[in-house]
Amino acid sequence: MATVTTTPQTLHVSLTRAERVLGLLRDLKVPLAAVQSVEVVPDGPAAARGLRAPGLGLPGLRLIGTWRRRGEKALVSVRRGQPAVRVHLTGQRFDTLLLGVDDPAAVARALSPAR
């Protein structure tokens, strides 16, 4: 499961070794100034939009990787039964982060002053 931490300047997403390998991803650091909006999503796998390229997709169970659709590139790491947080970014490698977390409301509160 991805771990989301914040400092006064940065949002840091730490992925497990399995997530990095299966999703062909790496850990991500984003300045908090790049965060445009944050929303809590009750069902992470259902919230993924677009086509997986590259990554792991077990529909309805586990999604890890990069999801692409016209004009948007998203880092996705979600699993069934776990709520997620969707973070919209500007000027970064990914336009959106969709991350399954145990307490999405706390993550959203931590990121909301950055808007």
Structure report:
This is Bacterial Pleckstrin homology domain-containing protein. The protein has helices spanning 17-23, 44-47, 104-111; strands at residues 3-6, 10-14, 28-31, 35-41, 51-58, 62-69, 72-79, 84-89, 96-100. By secondary structure, it is of the alpha+beta class. The protein has one domain. The strands form two sheets. The chain has a six-stranded mixed beta sheet with strand order 4-8-9-7-6-5. A three-stranded antiparallel beta sheet has the order 1-2-3, with helices on one face. The chain is globular and about 35 Å long. The mean pLDDT is 93.
Helix-strand blueprint:
Layout: E1 3-6, E2 10-14, H1 17-23, E3 28-31, E4 35-41, H2 44-47, E5 51-58, E6 62-69, E7 72-79, E8 84-89, E9 96-100, H3 104-111
Parallel strand pairs: 7-9
Antiparallel strand pairs: 1-2, 2-3, 4-8, 5-6, 6-7, 8-9
Spatial shape: globular
Q: Which band does the percent of strand residues land in? A: over 45%
- Using only CA atoms, what is the Rg? 13 Å
Low-confidence stretches: none
Number of helices: 3
Mean pLDDT: 93
* Secondary-structure element order, N to C: EEHEEHEEEEEH
Largest sheet: 6 strands, mixed
Distance between the termini: 25 Å
How many separate domains make up the residues?
A: 1
Structural class estimated from helices and strands: alpha+beta
Helical proportion, percent range = 10-25%
Count the strands? 9
- Enumerate the strands of the largest sheet in spatial order, edge to edge or round the barrel: 4-8-9-7-6-5
